[in-house]
Amino acid sequence: MLKNYSERTRTILNQIGLNFLYKGGSVLITLLFVSLSINYLGTEKYGMWLTLFSVSAFFNFFDFGLGHGLRNHLTRAIATKDYKLAKEYVSTAYITIFFISLLLVVVFLLIFNYIDWKLIFRIPSENLDSFLIII
User: Fold this and answer.
1) Fewer beta carbons under 10 A from the terminal one: N or C of the chain?
2) Could you give the CA distance from residue 66 to residue 68 in angstroms, rounded to a whole number?
3) Residue 101: which of 49, 63, 53 has the closest Cα?
């Protein structure tokens, strides 16, 4: 079927087919994982786990635009073969993210005991201990 196409076209079509296969496999694995997790944890604890995972995923995207800015400046520095500047961009981004993370951790540790976790996440009081262990 692919004999009439150029090598490049065949490679692209093969990659598209593999991409569909991988994405379909990923969806199946996710569905199995959810089913197994609910069976193992129960619906209430799975809901608590999912809530925590969602909150932590939100903070994963919370990089103040440093990732995109780094990508743009790093691409420009590598394109002009200015590798010293590229290293400076990468190290500056890492240091900035480190200090932002350190500041957020310190603030979180200072206010952790004063937050009413039951109210924020709407957790029944009998599950509060297991929820706080997860945090």
Assistant:
1) N
2) 6
3) 63
Cα–chain center distance at 105: 18
In angstroms, the Cα distances linking 65 to 22, 54, 62, 108 are 30, 20, 8, 22
pLDDT in tens, the chain (135 residues): 566 778 888 889 999 999 999 999 999 998 999 899 899 888 877 887 888 788 777 777 776 778 888 999 999 999 999 999 999 999 999 999 899 889 988 998 999 888 877 777 777 666 666 656 555
Q: Which residues contact 129 (CB under 8 A, 6 or more apart)?
A: none
Q: How far is CA 88 from CA 59, 95, 106, 135, in A?
A: 25, 10, 27, 35
**Tokens, residue 89:** 């961009």
Q: Which of 129, 128, 123 is nearest to 47 (CA)?
A: 123
Cα 5 from Cα 63, distance rounded (Å): 44
Give the integer Cα–Cα distance in Å for 123 and 115.
13
Quick check: 124 and 114 in contact, CB under 8 A? no
